[in-house]
Amino acid sequence: MSRIGQKPISIPSGVTITVSDGNIVTVKGPKGELSQPVHADLKVIIEDGAVRIERPTEQARHRSQHGLARTLIQNMVTGVSEGYRKGLEIHGVGYRAQVTGRDLVLNLGFSHPVTITPPDGISFEVTQEERGRVNRIYVAGIDKQKVGQIAADIRRIRKPDPYKGKGIRYEGEVVKLKQGKRATA
Questions:
Q1: Using an 8 Å Cβ cutoff, are 166 and 95 in contact?
Q2: How far apart are CA 125 and CA 103, in angstroms?
Q3: pLDDT one-digit tens code per residue, 5-59
Q4: Distance between CA atoms of 123 and 161, rounded to whole angstroms?
Q5: What does CATH list as the number for 3-81?
Q6: Model confidence over 91-145: pLDDT tens digits?
Q7: For residues 32 and 172, what is the distance between their CA atoms, to the nearest angstrom?
Q8: Start-end ranges of CATH 3.90.930.12 in the chain?
Q9: What is the DSSP string of 13-55?
Q10: Whole-prediction pTM value?
Q11: SS3 content of the chain, % helix, strand, coil (to 5)
């Protein structure tokens, strides 16, 4: 039995959840609105300020969708009430980032600056440490999947170098450095 699927989702104040035809769950909150289709066999029940997901049978396909549906709805509720934010760090001499309008402009040692235009619902914020050694980029939005995907796309532009540690990494990520060539004595 799915332990995740059995847990009810509490609805915070200011958030409304509706289920329309086709089992499409729509969540509205102070930060925006998200909708997600849920498997047709599952029942979404809204009662007493909580949402429960019920499955009709113990078949593998129903069990696999049960926890997924509950997690997707929970992520939507968290997104429209609090939002999501993912941090990235830029390490390297001369590497920097800046926000121009809505776009993120990255100077990462290429012959040209890399410009990233965010999709709707995503915003960028750039901060710099006092000594200028580490820039931080924050990707924020209400859709957890979009925030994570944009952060992964930014990291993919210049992955951390395993020898010097230069590049873009997630906030708190530890890059294990390799030895490199050794001088023979």
A1: yes
A2: 10
A3: 889 999 999 999 999 988 999 999 999 999 999 999 999 999 988 999 999 998 9
A4: 27
A5: 3.90.930.12
A6: 988 899 999 999 999 999 999 999 999 999 999 999 987 666 778 999 999 999 9
A7: 29
A8: 3-81, 84-170
A9: TT-EEEEETTTEEEEEETTEEEEEE--TTSEEEEETTEEEEE-
A10: 0.87
A11: 20, 35, 40
